[in-house]
Amino acid sequence: MYNWDDPINDALSKPDIVPEKKVSSELNKNFTDSASADIQDFPASEDRGVGSTGMEDIEQGAARIQVDDKAIINCRADLNQLVPFKYEWAWQKYLDGSANHWMPEEIPMHDDIKCWNDPSALRPEEREMVERNLGFFSTADSLVANNLVLAVYKHITNPECRQYLLRQAFEEAIHTHAYQYCVQSLGLDEARIFNMYRELPAVATKAEWALPFTQSLGDPTFQTGTHKDNQRLLRDLIAFYVVFEGIFFYVGFTQILSLGRRNLLTGVSQQFQYILRDESMHMNFGMDVINQIKNENPDLWTESFQQDMIDLIKTGVELEIQYGRDTMPKPMLGMDANQFEEYIKFIANRRFQRIGLPHQYPGATNPFEWMSEMMDLNKEKNFFETRVTEYKTGGQLKF
Ligand SMILES: [Fe+2]
Ligand SMILES: [Fe+2]
């Protein structure tokens, strides 16, 4: 039985091979049982302000859309008209993401193949760390993509935001492709890597934690419109954008990028660097959406809900710290698990602040300042300069 209050010990007590069974449905049951009392106890409203989906009948001659008709959730205006823009930040992120387009095959992997096949180039624990990260990420991005297209998209009732969600969904496909490309290039055992998220507790725990949130929103009977259901959407967005994309990726990114800094597995490292830049934008988009929902629906952001969200994010922090310990049982590449604990607490404080919650780890500092440079969006345009030009040329082809 999953213990929501102590998921780490619960996960650690699992056998090495997670038996084939409904881990997720069991989790979901417990998740639902233990979800915020605030959410559970709020009475359902009969006047449910259900939003449009974009699939409604076309209303001939209806009044034209005005900017003020638009809303992030529960919007009843036509969703099939991108303009007039209301949320310029969402459209801008769509443009920025598209300008930074890349594909995994563009990154040379020859040196990586040599490095991986040279017994003296990497220590066994470094190899294990690489494999575990590929194990986590290769399925994590499918999970994120499923969450976007099967759960989140339907409930976000704004065309600019949906436009970015579609871009993000494609980027998640590129990320899964990139991980597969790394696995293939290094000649790793595909089945072992792609099954780690259900066979290796260190990798499985985070995916298990996240899935119930997708199941929650993907439930065909779920729709926003009541206070309780709007809070449920907001909670699930925080689980995915703040915890999954904003915390769960950062031990792995740091570990792999530190290899590249030492001139090891430079192709794999570059794939991860491109992905990190995309992910940084995904997370920022998600937090903008969260803040916009809060602004438009201030009644959702109650004291008890805020406390629930603090607890939720802190659970994610504990899981990521544990992942750091599992993947780095002893120091390597000049880093150790304690530094990862400090780093995760440091970035968690930033996430808290970004969505209007107080820091939970006072005094946490950043032991990996070089990571900030890796995701500095101001550098992104230069970083991708040649590539952007190439894609623009492609886009100008005449037929
Ligand atoms: Fe991704
Ligand atoms: Fe993402």
Q: How many β-strand stretches?
A: 0
Second rung of CATH, namely the architecture? Orthogonal Bundle
Distance between the termini: 60 Å
Mean pLDDT: 85
* Overall geometric form: globular
Sheet-strand content, in percent, reads under 5%
The small molecules bound here are:
fe (ii) ion
Alpha-beta classification: mainly alpha
Element-by-element helix/strand order: HHHHHHHHHHHHHHHHHH
Secondary structure: helix percent: 55-70%
* Radius of gyration of CA atoms, rounded to a whole number: 22 Å
**Biggest sheet statistics:** none
- Report the top-level CATH class: Mainly Alpha
Q: Low-confidence stretches at least 5 residues in length (pLDDT < 50)? A: 1-47, 377-386, 392-399
Question: Topology, pairings included?
Answer:
Layout: H1 7-12, H2 23-34, H3 37-41, H4 88-99, H5 110-117, H6 124-155, H7 159-186, H8 190-194, H9 196-199, H10 201-218, H11 227-244, H12 250-261, H13 266-296, H14 303-327, H15 337-354, H16 370-374, H17 377-383, H18 385-395
Helix pairs in contact: 2-10, 4-7, 4-13, 6-7, 6-10, 6-11, 6-12, 7-13, 10-11, 10-14, 11-13, 11-14, 12-13, 14-15
Residues 144, 172, 245, 279, 282 line the site of one fe (ii) ion.
Can you walk me through this structure?
The chain is mostly helical and about 400 residues long. The chain has one domain (about 105-385): Ribonucleotide Reductase, subunit A. The chain has 18 helices and no strands. The protein has helices at about 5-10, 25-35, 35-40, 90-100, 110-115, 125-155, 160-185, 190-195, 195-200, 200-220, 225-245, 250-260, 265-295, 305-325, 335-355, 370-375, 375-385, 385-395. α6 (about 125-155) packs antiparallel against α7 and α12 (about 250-260) packs antiparallel against α13. It starts with 6 loop residues before the first helix and ends with a helix. The model is unreliable at about 1-45, about 375-385 and about 390-399 (pLDDT under 50). It binds fe (ii) ion (FE2) (2 copies). One fe (ii) ion binds near residues 172 and 282. One fe (ii) ion binds near residues 144, 279 and 282.
